[in-house]
Amino acid sequence: MNNLILISSVLITFALVFYSLGVWAERISRYLKKWHLIAFWTGFSFDVSGTYAMHLISENPFNLLDFHTLTGQLALWLMLAHAIWASIVVAKRNELMRKKFHRYSIFVWLVWLIPYFGGMFLGMNQ
Question: What is the pTM of this model?
Fold first, then answer.
């Protein structure tokens, strides 16, 4: 196995772990805490790093007509928006916003799972 494939797989899996931890802990508590925010940003950072490593491997990295590339880009942008929004909510210290934040988190997480599992299946079929 190519070392870059192994590195990208590990980074993306760390993204899954941290992002899932943040999303589900926040969902269960129904209140956005600072450590959830840290988990979102950590997951996003691992995802960007893993995506970049995969970009280096790809023969056609900018093919937005490819379903995996398109969903991966969508997921990254949604994760970024999610983490920025969470940062704003925590900074404003608005209790109502912190209690309602979890509604959006699950949607972003579910969208993120599409390229995660899609990439896994693509990798197994090569």
Answer: 0.86
The tally of domains found in the chain comes to 1
Domain span at residue 69 reads 3-124
Q: Considering all CA atoms of the chain, what is the largest pairwise distance in Å, rounded to the nearest integer? A: 49
pLDDT digits (tens, 9 = 90+) for 90-106: 999 888 888 888 788 89
Nearest CA-CA partner of 17 in 39, 37, 45: 39
